Amino acid sequence: MNTFGRAIVWASSQHEQHDERLIHQIAIVLAATRYYGFSTLLCVPNATTQPGGYALGAQAGEAAIRDVTVEAGFTRFRRAAETPFNAVYEVRP
Q1: Please, are residues 41 and 59 in contact by the beta-carbon 8 Å criterion?
Q2: Which is higher by pLDDT, 48 or 20?
Q3: Superkingdom of the source (predicted)?
Q4: Deepest of 15, 31, 38, 90, by most Cβ within 10 A of its Cβ?
């Protein structure tokens, strides 16, 4: 049974990769290195201490994020936006 309020919206972002100019790719690689580092140092260890057993890391992928949200009871999932660095998902009950 879902006990979500009627106005709950959850937004999630994930790092995105695109094929574009070399300079832009270098900027993405530098930023991605930081994202991976912080994820490995902070996010994954934190996730392993919480119930559920999900430690998806910085590049979980859209399918894994969708699976986790469906398992949590959400029924609507879509890619709402994307940037060179992130994919933003809209998740609703």
Answers
A1: no
A2: 48
A3: Bacteria
A4: 15
